[in-house]
Amino acid sequence: MELNMDGWGSNEKYPHALGEPGTSINRWYLKLKSELMPYTYSIAEEAVSGMPMIRAMFLECPNAYTWSAATQYQYMYGPYFLVAPIYQATQTDEAGNDIRDGIYLPEGSWIDYFTGEKYEGNCILNNFAAPLWKLPIFVKNGAIIPLTNPNNNVSEINDGVRIYEIYPYGKSAFTEYDDDGISESYKRGEGVKTDIESIVDNKNNVTVTIHPTKGSFVGFVKEKTTEFRINVTAQPKRITAQVGGRKVKLTNVASRDAYIEGENVYFYDKTPNLNKFATPGSEFEKKVVTKNPQLLVKLGAEDVTASATTLRIEGFRFTPEDRHRITAGALSAPVAQVTTDYIEAYTLKPTWNQVADADFYEIDFEGMLYTTIKHTELVFKDLTPETSYSFKMRAVNKTGTSDWTEFSAITKSDPLEFAIRDIKVESTAASQGRDGIKRLVDFVESGDVWHTKYGEKAVPFELTLDLVRVSQLDKFHYLPRTDAGNGTLLKGKVAYSMNREEWIEAGAFEWQRNGDVKVFSFANQPTARYIRLSVTEAVGNYGSGREIYVFKVPGTESYLQGDINFDGKIDGNDLTSYTNYTGLRKGDSDFEGYISNGDINKNGLIDAYDISVVATQLEGGVGTRGTEKVNGAVEISTSKKIYAKDELIEIEVKGIDLSAVNALSFALPYDQQAYEFAGVELQHMGEMENLTYDRLHSNGLKSLYPTFINVGNKKTLEGTTNLFVLKFKAKRKLTFDLKLVDGLLVDKKLNTHKL
Fold first, then answer.
1. How much is the pTM?
2. Which entry of 70, 146, 221, 580 is 20 to 30 Å from 652 by CA?
3. Domain at 337-410: CATH architecture
4. How much is the average pLDDT of 434-462?
């Protein structure tokens, strides 16, 4: 909410921009953030060499459920806070109040930070109330949270006070870290660490020990007041404290004000109100947000480096009332099923009858317990198509649970099973937004619309889809904007290609202006890697769309161009194979069969283009942004025409006005009775690999194939320069008559220029 950057939405993001209650709520959370600074700084120090501050659930709780996408909308903030933001509208009312489904609580017990309600983990919460002011935050039982005074900036922090909020449970520990917060002295070890431990024994007595602070830094304040905020549900029987083995006399005060003003005091705060920072006079100021009781203890200032501080609480209780189990009475088992209308490829939605006296429902699914379900339906997402799933369900109230109801359902087949993924797309028209044209092929239909640049006429323009793999094409679906507004494509032509150079027309499209899915079917189901849409008419002369899905023929296999070894990947082994096959032609005995698939541009020759398809993907691939299209010429010449027997013939190969040349090749047929190849002398070829091959074809003819390729992202050849010298030995007296044929220049985008 503090961001106010262009491109992040049309409304302001300043804390005060939305007025009340937004201003009060924002102030509250900003103050909470400031109070958490010692905790935040401590987990930041841990992140230098250990776990990050913001932790995906699988980092803290690795299991099959967290490894899936199921917990993508929640995270751990350090080891103790679980945060589950409201990322979508589920049951929003006019005031902005909502609920949150699908909150995964790992094993252990968890406390709602704002109410004190306790939940046992290893389950998934649903229907979690999230009024406008409430971010779902859970604290792990056993948490030790260092705090400071609420402030507007770090200069207002009171360095003479240390505060610890604790949820005693079993045995737990935390290390607080601090340094000067300004310089890089921490790199030299200038900083302090304080170990805090909390232990609950079998008699419900709590012992909190703050060990002496170790280390130092410039400006460190040793004399500090110590405050404890112990979360409880009943007033303890006895509270004692010691500093360095010396007993501290504590006084029980009757009010929060007396506690604030006092020293060596404690106060049982039965109803802590968390809403302390609302705008005076605002309606939100009247809102009371009460959590569980807290025992507040404050000890006078002591040298925290000199000795340990110990707090002992006898008769500790933290047993929050279950606010979800209210009704008493026997429960019947729900009648549950997944009807045909609620079965999809990736989702199932069980429904059931309302059970009398039930407070909520639970579903056991795939080893996870989905609990606190207060409606009579629940959607299960991210399932596998054509798979049978089993469910167990029961009703729950204060008395107990009903018997389980068991049922099952089978998901449908995937409508996108044969849709080609990982497509790359380019547009000759500029796109709006950071993600641009990628939005058109990212398999996200909702809230993810591609649009050409606002205010600029786009039509006519071309969309070129690189399918990455060669596929037998069946059809493609174009999903326009649901409102069929600006940019909706109406007319154009479709073509396909194997190499982006030679295009075959597939037909034209003329679509009605509406939000329906548009389908273009390929006659004869051709095989191709590239598809081009030449758009000649669109609404408002813009271009837009939610998605384009390209479908291959069901049951067919796609393959990578250049994967000449057919191992499903492009690697150095493919380049090695191409090195051996350079110059191989259609008609050669080795060409037919799998080698012919390596002739990607289908010109009957393994040349620089075919090898470039592999080489541009190796060593991290090439950078193609802003690259020019290949151009130029290559000439060959000799110093004379007549050569005597055994004389060396040097053929100068020169590049003329070269631009963006990433690879080149040509053929130099010669009479093996007159010429004998002697070698290549490189002159100005940069870092190109020399794959020149002197080949004897199956028909008895001999040709030299000078071939040079950049592997990975290397500098291209530019300008006019001598490239290399080809050397032959004259086997008899001859007149030089060799001619360059089948010449080809290739750029990083695999555009070609014939010589």
1. 0.67
2. 580
3. Sandwich (2.60)
4. 91
